[in-house]
Amino acid sequence: MASSLKSMYGPIHYPMKQKLLLTFALLITGCSSLHAEEGEAADAAPTFRVHPQVFSLIQGWLADTESPVITEINLDAVDKNRNQFSKTGIRQEGDWTVCREVDAPGFRRYRVLEQKGGHFKVEYQENDGGTLTTSSVIGFSLMKRELMRNGKSTSIEVIRVDDYTSK
Fold it and tell me: Residue 54: which of 30, 37, 33, 74 has the closest Cα?
């Protein structure tokens, strides 16, 4: 490397050579750390963020016997509807995305168990403030879907449920 630089720029003085070596070492170190961060990101929990209330729409009421109740949810509407899906009570607690209402003692929460491409599996838990916490595992795909809104074709992002297990 030094000989090719020497032929291009003439003789390299020691301080210049030292700067080049230092720059090269920093470049290699930086690339190595970026590669390590990419590996860590691939091993980390998948990033999927949605309001936990979405999963309560899928799971039926405790006294009802059949779930899933809703098998497709418009995520674009969830993102825009701030009354039902207010983000003020949502926190990250470890692996769990938790929603605690301000004046209510319970919670709704989920954590991503696995992700394969656009398919996810989450564990969803719900508690209304007592000692009972219901739990289910919900498998779903994220996909785009066309629908007619006010006579115009519109593309929306949806969760489409394809697997449900109550625990």
Answer: 74
